[in-house]
Structure formats: structure tokens, C-alpha cells
Amino acid sequence: MAPDPPAAIRVEACPADITIDIDHRPSLPPDSAALTSHWAALQRSNPRLHDGPILAVTSIDPAAAHDHSECNTRSGHSLSIHARVDAYRRLAVQPRVTTGVRLLGVTLVLVSHHQGPPAFLLARRGPSVRCYPNAWELGPSGGVSVPPATITRLTTIDLARAALDELDEELGISTTPLEGTSSITPDPSTLTPRVLLHDDAAHSLDVVLAPTAAVPGGVADAATTNWEYTDYLWVPCATAADWAAELTAANPANPDAHPDAVAPPTRALLAHWRELMPGV
């Protein structure tokens, strides 16, 4: 049994129909001296950091929120997330400099039974990422890219495509089927939002998507050349929570310092994956 997730992590069931309404011209405050100074210090310590546009969550329509008991009642409900175009530097300086920026991201929970029983794909984060360096996570995950200014609304299918782009671009897993198999990559239309993952420590809100069933295809080796991820592995669904708990228990005083640490958001998802992701 996996330990309780950290207090900074909250998993919330959500409907399958999600829209993202985007404000492309928000009125952002000017950078403070503290923000400018700390951003410069972060760039000196990690040259990979660079500024750029991000989507930041401004509000969530509370009328469409579900609690865990309603997780299986998905039809007939929708959820509206409001977001603005913001700047990565305003995210990265937190918590030293409070800006209120909350990144809108996607996490792909990929399950395959190409090697036997259904197994989760986990990826190891690189040493230079903003949060949870070197930790294993369900994924890949990443921020939702800012669309052209003419596009002011994203839908569930757009989030699914963003998640599959992360699989290809960040982890380097080929979407080409192995000989004699189907592709491990599900069609975007088969990916459905399962939960919202609120991470106060990372200042992010992720829409967690998963296929409607385990995909049967084979997968070629990941390229793992992208700096954001260095490795990946498959962990059987039935034992994944125990696997994460064992790694956490190896260093109970500071579980995230373990060389094989499991990122807190992933520990939270694995602790409740059966009830939060039925059918996977």
C-alpha cells in the first residue's frame, strides 16, 4: 500500500469533457526587482532555463467539479478551465518570489500489456528540470503549449494530442509499430481525462489523461536524449503502488532524496489508481 501523498498534492476526479478558454492578452504586472534578480540567479545556476510563453491557470469552473465518489459518472458533465498566456520566468521564481502563476500541464498515464500483465510507463526526470530532478514519474508530463493567438479555446482532443507530443518529443519513444504488433501509442480520441492533479509545490495543475484500455502494441527503445528525461521503465500496475512505497520507505526522513525516488505527484496517483482510473 502506498503512503499517503504529500499535503501539497491533491487529486480531484474530473469529467471527460474539458475546455480551456485562453486569454492571449492578459494585463500582467511589471517584473519586480526581486523577480528580476532571482530569475537571473536561476539562469546562472541552470543554463538550460530560458524564458518563454506558458499557459497559466486563472480559474476552474466549480460547477463541474466532481469528488472521488462521482469518478465513474462522467457523461453529461463538462469542466471549463480558464487560462492566460504568462511567462515561464514568473513561474520559475516561485516560491522565493510569489507571483501566483500556476502552470497548466498534461500528464499521460500510458498502460500497455505488450510484455504481459498491464504495466505503467514511468520516466526518470533529468537532473536539471525545475521540479523533482532524477525522480521517476508517470508520464511524460509537461506544460500545454500556447496556441496561436487566433485559437482561444482548447478541447479534450487538443490536450490528448499535447500529451502524445510529450511522449514523442520529450521521451523519444517511437510511435512506429514494431514488426507484427500494433502501435503502443493510442489514438488521441481514445485518451480521456481521468483526474486533475493539483501540485502546490510545483505550482501546477495537470490534466491527467489515460487510454480507455491498456494498449497491446510493442515499443521500441526510447531515445532518452532529451535533457528532461534520462530513462524509462515499465512497472506492473498491480504492484506499482508497492514499488513506489518501497522506494519511499528506503529513506523515510527524506524520500525525495533517494536516488530512485518516485515524484510525489506520481505517488499520489499510484495510491489511488484503481478508483481514480477505472478501466485501466
Describe the structure.
- The strands form three sheets. A five-stranded mixed β-sheet has the order 1-11-12-5-9, sandwiched between helices. Strands 3-4-2-10 form a four-stranded mixed β-sheet.
- The protein has helices at about 35-45, 90, 155-170, 235-250, 265-270, 275, and strands spanning about 10-15, 15-25, 55-60, 80-85, 105-110, 110, 120-125, 135-140, 140-145, 155, 190-200, 205-210, 230-235.
- The model is unreliable at about 65-75 and about 175-185 (pLDDT under 50).
- The protein has about 280 residues and is of the alpha+beta class.
Produce a short descriptive summary:
The protein is α+β, with helices and mostly antiparallel strands and about 280 residues long. About 20% of the residues lie in helices and about 30% in strands. The protein has a 5-stranded mixed sheet with strand order 1-11-12-5-9, with helices on both faces. It has a 4-stranded mixed sheet with strand order 3-4-2-10.
Oligomer: single chain
Could you tell me how far the N terminus lies from the C terminus, measured between alpha carbons in angstroms?
18 Å
Anisotropy-based shape: globular
Sheet having the most strands: 5 strands, mixed
Helix-strand string: EEHEEHEEEEEEHEEEHHH
Mean pLDDT: 81
Key phrases:
28% strand, 5-stranded mixed beta sheet, 280 residues
Task: Describe the secondary structure blueprint for this structure.
Elements: E1 9-13, E2 17-23, H1 33-45, E3 53-60, E4 78-87, H2 88-92, E5 103-108, E6 111-112, E7 119-125, E8 136-138, E9 141-143, E10 153-154, H3 156-169, E11 191-199, E12 204-211, E13 229-236, H4 237-249, H5 264-271, H6 273-276
